[in-house]
Hints:
By secondary structure, the protein is an alpha/beta fold. The chain has one domain (11-92, 130-140, 184-340): TIM Barrel (Alpha-Beta Barrel). It has 15 helices and seven strands. The protein has helices at residues 11-18, 36-46, 59-70, 104-109, 117-129, 143-150, 152-161, 163-184, 209-215, 217-229, 246-253, 268-275, 287-292, 295-309, 329-340, and strands at residues 75-77, 135-140, 190-196, 233-237, 257-259, 280-282, 315-316. The protein has a seven-stranded parallel β-sheet with strand order 1-2-3-4-5-6-7, sandwiched between helices. The radius of gyration is 20 Å and the shape is globular.
Amino acid sequence: MDTLPFVTLDIEGLYRNLRREGTPDRVYYFEHGVAPELASALQARFGIWDGIDADHADAPYQRMIATHCFLGQELFRIYPATEIRPAPAESAWENEGVGVMRDWRDFERFPWPAPPDALVTELDAWARLVPGDMRVFFSLKLWETVRELFGFTHFCMTLFDDPPLIEAVVTRVAEYNLAVLETCCRYPCVGAVYLIDDLGYKTSTMLAPEVIRELFLPWHRRMAELAHTHDKLVLFHSCGQMYTLMDAYIDEVGIDAKHSFEEVVLPVTEAKRRYGRRVALLGGMDVDFLARADEAAIRRKTREYLEVCQPGGGYCLGSGNWVTHYIPLDNYLAMLDEARRWA
């Protein structure tokens, strides 16, 4: 595919859509993230970065803006230093056994950070460069950070052996997140806060729902309340079968939109039928399907999603998780092309 119909960005239209204020005039788009390989493939085919001085300090920001503008996304994710990182693991994979947080001595010795100065420097750059018809969002992790610090197996054992240590670590991470959120939300270019916590497997939540409700949900609610105080949308990403808690995240936490859908867990079309009157839904095109299917099947599935999810608003088309490097460019473009011809 050598062309793609143009989309006029409309940030206020996106906001109305996410607030479910009626069926939008066009399809809006959302992605958890776009792999650098796919962005480079877009440049190779369409020249979307032509004219950007590669040696200029602003070039990485300008390339990201150009990429998401081409993809028709008014709201896109940035990656400032917003996470507490455990000590480097032996590989890029998370240590599922025992992490750096083994006992109270580790808690006292751990270099608990304050929001870094680099965070403000990066946000200043985005504030200067983001066009008026676009906004950015950043991610915050709570459960996932705590899990990485302990290691999943050791977390579960400590939950039984030493609950106060679990609570102390959760509180430290959550308070750090609130400080980061307060800083980021001062910037008008920030349009939303993205809470990322994969709560489930394909068949159930990773932890008992009552544990999640006790340890993590109250802090998620505080983060959402602070974001809403600054008039920012609250987007919630969670993979897996977490829907025993979906009502709580809608009604108690107050999320504005839910992201991450898998066909084998809950198709976005079914999520629309269950929750579409109460919360916006983001993405939904199953990543495995998007990577393997042919163009005709992708176009059919795109129209199927739009027929169910567009009415009444509250839907943005995109992948079920993120645009991975192994999704063929033409497959992804077929989805976008079909959506841009939607009427």
